[in-house]
Design brief:
33% of the residues lie in helices and 24% in strands. By secondary structure, the protein is α/β, with parallel strands linked by helices. A nine-stranded mixed beta sheet has the order 5-4-1-6-11-8-12-10-9. Strands 2-3 form a two-stranded antiparallel ribbon. Strands 7-13 form a two-stranded antiparallel ribbon. The radius of gyration is 20 Å and the shape is globular.
Length: 292
């Protein structure tokens, strides 16, 4: 059985929730404190043992490619000044090969994955969505890879979400919830609260077998007039077992504004160089005192 060594990171979305900031800047490059969101995703892949990453981009996303390029002048400058911690952060992604392909039309997540089919070939692969930063001692993707190594089947990362938010997600109908690994009866894309078969939502981490591309080749249109990955996974589940896995880790939703702000504040409060100043600033804001 082939090992999972490749991942796809879809980054072709228009980022309309963050306009006007994303008119000229990719949403994936918006920083959490001082690191763009997509770098957190790339680092999770690296920590999970991935050797090749393909980022599916779209129009106006060149800044992503520039960010992961080697910048020799900058690296030499940091080395001369003895800023070795910063140098290590700048070079963090150099241990993995990053490739790029463009999704020429915004036809949905399923189509973005299909665009990378030639890069993946006949190997199992991971998918990491940039709207979810997940923190855990053992990366969420690595947890899914371990389950794939045990089962040889596609593994979909899930977590329970509040029932009133279930309409925002793809949802699984598990046969049983007695263990973290759940055989799935059905996958449903963004159901209403009344239609949702469970509160286990798909939250941006997947291990998929390459036969998913045969289904995506059909380019079936789903909700929102787009080619939905969840719909393709549901079809795959008709012919071979697909599992949901309730991985461990704290999830930060950076795909919407309040979640983005919460993530930024949480990460800042964890840093020795920022936490005291951030606490003081928040106290002044909450007491309605002007910031000097």
């Amino acid at each position: 059985m082939k090992k999972v060594k490749k991942v796809i990171i879809p980054a072709a979305g228009l980022g309309t929730r963050f306009l006007p900031a994303t008119k000229a800047m990719p949403k994936e490059m918006l920083p959490i404190v001082d690191m763009p969101t997509i770098q957190y995703i790339v680092e999770e892949a690296i920590e999970s043992g991935i050797t090749d990453i393909i980022i599916v981009t779209g129009k106006g996303k060149r800044a992503i490619e520039d960010h992961f390029d080697n910048v020799h002048e900058l690296e030499e400058n940091l080395l001369r000044k003895g800023k070795l911690d910063l140098l290590e952060k700048v070079k963090a992604s150099s241990v993995v090969d990053i490739h790029y392909i463009r999704q020429k039309e915004p036809l949905g997540l399923g189509h973005a994955i299909w665009c990378a089919r030639n890069f993946i070939g006949d190997e199992p692969f991971g998918v990491l969505l940039g709207d979810d930063i997940i923190r855990n001692d053992k990366p969420a993707l690595k947890q899914l890879i371990e389950q794939y190594d045990e089962t040889g089947s596609s593994i979909i990362g899930v977590q329970q979400v509040p029932h009133e938010e279930i309409h925002r997600y793809g949802v699984i109908d598990p046969e049983s919830t007695e263990s973290k690994l759940m055989k799935v009866r059905k996958f449903v894309e963004k159901p209403s609260q009344e239609e949702a078969p469970s509160d286990f939502a798909i939250v941006g981490r997947y291990i998929l077998t390459p036969d998913i591309f045969t289904i995506l080749d059909e380019k079936q249109i789903g909700k929102g007039g787009e080619i939905q990955l969840t719909d393709a996974i549901e079809q795959l589940n008709h012919t071979r077992d697909v599992y949901g896995y309730a991985f461990e880790g704290r999830r930060f939703d950076v795909g919407e504004k309040l979640g983005f702000i919460e993530t930024t504040l949480t990460f800042a409060l964890e840093r020795d160089d920022l936490k005291d100043g951030v606490r003081e600033m928040m106290e002044r804001l909450l007491s309605k005192q002007p910031i000097a």
